[in-house]
Specification:
By secondary structure, the protein is an alpha/beta fold. The protein has two domains: 402 residues, Glycosidases (TIM Barrel, Alpha-Beta Barrel), CATH 3.20.20; 102 residues, Immunoglobulin-like. The chain is 24% helix and 17% strand. It contains 16 helices and 22 strands. The strands form five sheets. It has an eight-stranded parallel barrel with strand order 1-2-5-10-11-12-13-14, surrounded by five helices. Helix 6 packs across helix 8 and helix 7 runs parallel beside helix 8. It starts with 41 loop residues before the first helix and ends with a strand.
Length: 643
């Protein structure tokens, strides 16, 4: 989730902190107490399942309303007519094939559920949104206004917006990819009102007792006896950049006031709070205690069916049921999975309840959570039944610091050791809608500096990989289109994305407008990501070569990182140079432990370098392996053992 001024915002008091203290166990022992009927542990069973599949998932995140926009005006606070907007229909067969070229298995269509926008759609029965509680002109995708409909901006005919999205789901499936959309359980838009909900469904807050701060089945928390006040302007911010608007009057009617999405309990939140949203009540009392059944410790080791059975006879807060109804509605329309926003702010028990319900309908559903606290990772996976978590605080942050030459590569080996028992449940990325573009001056200043990081993040472990649209052609996020600052591509305003538009080439999606450098960069992304999606070793084992080579040769250096991956079908040696100026030439060592595990005999073994398709040799002598390597600046090598 993106917010102005702070990122990520400090997590406030109603976070369901951790169940780790309640269900404490030693690192590496999380699955050790249960044995399956075939004698395997759950980890062994999961690894066996992974080994039966080639490669691993590759997620293509696209900010849906920006993808197909061909307009290049990019006026600050520009209207839809001035700056343009992309549509569902822009995801043509040709466009989808271009996305699939990146090894894509899943498309995360960001910004699909109907959120607050300033564009007037009252002719379609949609209420006008107030700029005082909408961020930007196009609105935040994380302030959902109607969970049973989609953003009218995205439809050629807003009256047929849901049907147009359903058609996109069908097209995506036709091209062999699955569909992910956002669900934001922690909060909704201040003006939430569904005009599309099915019969029997009530709106959030519709049956609340607003005279009290908290009630178990209330959907919101209330500041009883006080009216909501629009935040005082700070940092020079004005709705719509100060442009006159009939509703931009510094007022928004909400009586009594509700708690704000980030937990602020004041009737007048600050401008850097999540003021456009309302906090959802999950049965967590204002004092932080829980008003719902707790999940017993042994469910850490139980499957989805057992979790679903646990909740089957439990009386749960109304908000839990509302979100269950929402996700089941979208599953019925063909959506294949969900990305859960700020999942840490919602109790773990709710995730057990929700995700087990999802998996009962679609066992293959892709469930991804935005989680930033490493101490919670195993709780969200084992108790919350998440498939994947953001690997932001560990792998992403480490790679960013390395790309910026602020940290050595040592940290990567440490992180992989720490996450080894859960790495198949992590998701690696270098860009997303919350993060700075690699090519922006505020990050690396060059998309080329992302190339070694791409190789490492995509190939180092069993984690899923994710690429953000236009990352593969070096978008720098430099446009200033209104709400927020450059370096991150806007998610709040109407805009065109220049580098992406060069690939899009007026809807031809043939890369016709790309420069030679951009073409080469995209080709590199295609090659690396396809490999991660298809290579058998990606679901196999990992070992670092880093410390061995630091100790063995002075010419290896702390700007280089190396590791091996292997399975029964494939053995890989991966080396990356993060230095933008220096060439590193050295004799890469494979330690005796790897030589032994790979059962390599003494003598010369043929290698094939994947990225350049050049042959090489591995010499095994006295129980150690040696490869003569010369790494140019920002170069990576991926050697496959020819067997």
């Amino acid at each position: 989730m993106s917010f102005l001024f702070t990122r990520p915002l400090v997590r406030l008091s109603l976070v369901s902190v951790t169940l780790g203290a309640l269900f404490a166990c030693a690192p590496g022992a999380y699955f050790s107490t249960r044995v399956n009927s075939d004698g395997t542990s759950p980890v062994q069973a999961e690894e066996s399942m992974l080994a039966s599949k080639p490669g691993k998932p590759v997620v293509y995140q696209v900010f849906t309303r920006l993808f197909g926009n061909t307009k290049t005006t990019n006026i600050a606070w520009g209207t839809l007519a001035e700056n343009g907007v992309g549509k569902f229909s822009d995801f043509t067969d040709t466009a989808l094939e271009g996305i699939k070229q990146l090894g894509t298995t899943h498309i995360w269509y960001t910004g699909v559920p109907h959120h607050g926008v300033i564009t007037d759609y009252t002719v379609h029965g949609i209420s006008q949104d107030d700029p005082d509680v909408v961020k930007g002109r196009a609105g935040s995708p994380y302030a959902v206004k109607d969970y049973y409909s989609v953003d009218p901006d995205l439809a050629d005919d807003p009256a047929q917006r849901l049907e147009e999205f359903e058609a996109l789901i069908v097209r995506t499936h036709k091209h062999g990819m699955q569909v992910i959309i956002d669900i934001v359980p922690n909060h909704v838009a201040r003006n939430y009102h569904s005009i599309s909900k099915p019969p029997g469904i009530t709106d959030f807050g519709e049956n609340d007792d607003s005279t009290v701060e908290y009630a178990r089945h209330n959907n919101f928390y209330y500041v009883a006896g006080k009216d909501f006040k629009v935040p005082a302007a700070t940092h020079g911010y004005q709705p719509l950049g100060g442009e006159p608007h009939p509703l931009a009057d510094g007022k928004f009617s909400e009586s009594p006031a509700k708690w704000t999405g980030n937990g602020t309990r004041k009737a007048q939140p600050k401008s850097d709070d999540w003021y456009e949203t309302i906090k959802i009540n999950y049965g967590v009392k204002p004092d932080g205690s829980y008003d719902f059944p707790r999940l017993p410790a042994e469910y850490r080791h139980q499957d989805y069916a057992a979790h679903a059975a646990f909740w089957a006879d439990k009386n749960v807060p109304d908000s839990w049921q509302k979100y269950r109804d929402i996700v089941l509605y979208w599953l019925a329309k063909g959506v294949d999975g969900f990305r859960y926003d700020v999942a840490e702010l919602v109790p773990i028990e709710f995730w057990s309840y929700l995700n087990s319900a999802v998996k009962q309908v679609n066992p293959q559903a892709f469930l991804l959570a935005e989680v930033y606290d490493p101490s919670l990772y195993r709780d969200f996976i084992q108790l919350g039944k998440m498939d994947y978590l953001y690997d932001k605080v560990d792998t992403y942050d480490a790679l960013k610091a390395i790309m910026q030459n602020k940290a050595p590569t040592d940290t990567l080996a440490v992180i992989q050791t720490r996450l080894q028992d859960i790495d198949m449940h992590m998701l690696n990325f270098l860009e997303n809608h919350d993060e700075q573009r690699i090519a922006s001056p505020q990050f690396a200043g060059s998309a080329e500096k992302g190339k070694p990081a791409l190789v490492v993040s995509s190939l180092i472990n069993r984690s899923a990989s994710m690429v953000y649209f236009a990352q593969d052609v070096g978008e720098d996020g430099s446009e200033d289109t209104g709400y927020g600052d450059p370096s991150r591509t806007t998610i709040f305003d109407y805009a065109g994305v220049p580098a992406h538009q060069h690939w899009m080439n007026q809807g031809k999606f043939d890369g016709g407008g790309l420069s030679k450098q951009q073409r080469a960069l995209r080709k590199y992304y295609v090659k690396v990501l396809q490999f991660s999606a298809q290579a058998p070793a990606m679901t196999g084992q990992y070992a670092s070569l880093h410390q061995t080579n630091l100790d063995a040769t002075s010419t290896y250096g702390q700007r280089v990182f190396s590791f091996v991956r292997w399975s029964k079908k494939q053995k890989l040696i991966v080396i990356s140079n993060f230095d933008a100026k220096q060439t590193y030439a050295f004799d890469l060592h494979l330690p005796p432990a790897i030589v032994g595990k790979w059962q390599l005999s003494s003598g010369t073994h043929a290698l094939q370098e994947y990225l350049t398709d050049q042959p090489a040799n591995l010499l095994v002598k006295d129980g150690q392996g040696h490869i003569s390597v010369s790494l140019a600046p920002l170069q990576s090598m991926v050697f496959t053992l020819v067997e």
